[in-house]
Amino acid sequence: MVDVALSRMTRAEAVGQHVRREIAERGLRPGQLIGTKTDIRASVGVAKATMNEAVRLLESQGVVAVRPGPGGGLFVAQHDPVVRLGQSLLTVDAEPVRVADAVVVRELLEPRIIVDAAEHRTQDDIVAITAQSEALADVVDDPNAFVHAVWELHRTFARITPNRILRETYLSMLRFIDAETLGVGSVEEDTSHRRYKRSRLRLHQRIAKAVVAGNLDRAADLAREHALTTG
Description:
Helices cover 69% and strands 5% of the residues. By secondary structure, the chain is mostly helical.
């Protein structure tokens, strides 16, 4: 069972991690069947909507391919060179990768990610970004849930960019940071930290508004502010 008491998006990420473990533990190769959505959903114990979201995430990350109909299900995707590049960045020379290093790379890429999102967002993206921005306020007082909700908003921005190398590199950094910090207990927040969180909420809502409006200059200004104030 997937035991993640956070948002639906975070549950979807946990299902994705489960599917990745299945692929690794079973030694599945590209093109081989992982399982049907129904079977996987039953094994992890999540709602149908959560399973569908997890599949969407896994497809966008180049992990699975979905085949409908009889004999269909989730199959290991044929990894193209761009996807392999993003994955290999975290195992260069088999040396350990520090979370702090991944955070630096993520922060360097985010301004371009945000501007690309403002330039290339579709109507479906606008709906998703608006919903995620509004949902941030619901979890701002839960440290872990807020962090993961913010990351999910940035994932949505990243999936919009037409630059696949940029997208895969950024998402690889975020997946690594997420995997290394998921489940780490949070300390009790003091008043100053709560104020900081509220300021981050307002900043991310302004970024989302600029992206939704397609305002490239405003998005660029806010991206720079985001880079300067990330902590």
